[in-house]
Amino acid sequence: QKCIEDLKTPFGTVTCDLMSGKEIWITKGPVFDSVWPSMAMPGVFPPVEGPEGRWYIDGGIVNPVPVSLCRALGADVVIAVNLNNDLLRRVEIEKQSKGSNRKKTSEVAKIFAKAKNLIPSIKKETESDKPKPPDFFETISRSINIAQDRITKTRLAGDPPEIILCPKVTDIGLLETYRAEEAIRAGYKCCEANIAAIKDAIGH
Fold it and tell me: Is the distance from CB of 173 to CB of 141 less than 8 angstroms?
């Protein structure tokens, strides 16, 4: 397989040492071996064994938008892509929506409170209308995304890129890889909308 050293464009990935929490940059060796540990999302993919028996997980845990790595690889102009933009607002909207549904369910339950002992079927129907909590994978993915959003804001404030692109993909779930075409179109539209700023940053 092709190695990073053979690529025409400088390349590197970010991963995280599971034991120490240290940010690790992989800039040498097989491309596949560098990409795999950088996307080992906790709770979804198992950690990947690295040198000296260390275990690596998704680098987004410590550096979701690795501007610092790009600078280290020699980039004069960094065009970053932030996929976590507006994530918390989306979660809050969904949370408010669910809260509203709970309120409505509660009001309906009060109406049938006196009758539930007389008509068992009503009691069962009311109980079945209770909102279900997020499943395991949804909870894991959202928790990771929220943490990444916080880390992203802190890292970008300390080392801002020349251009930051924020494609509208917050409606695409972390595990919805089958929606890749939608994500690509969103990225294309975002680049088109920012083409003037991009040309200005790179001096064209």
Answer: yes
pLDDT for 128 beyond 50: yes
As separate numbers, helices (DSSP H) first and strands (DSSP E) second, the chain gives 7, 6
Whether the predicted model's global pTM rises above the 0.90 cut: no
Q: What residues does 164 pair with on adjacent strands?
A: 80
26 CB-contact burial (10 Å; exposed 0-12 / middle 13-18 / buried 19+) = buried
Polymer length in residues for the chain: 204
Sequence-distant (≥ 6) Cβ neighbours of residue 203 within 8 angstroms: none
Region 178-192 average pLDDT: 95
Rg of the chain (C-alpha set): 23
- Please state, in angstroms and rounded to a whole number, the distance separating the CA atoms of residues 51 and 11: 20
Contact (CB, 8 A) for 4 and 28: yes
Q: For residues 2 and 148, which has the higher predicted lDDT (pLDDT)? A: 2
Bridge partners (DSSP) listed for residue 74: none
E strand or H helix at 67, and its extent?
helix 67-72
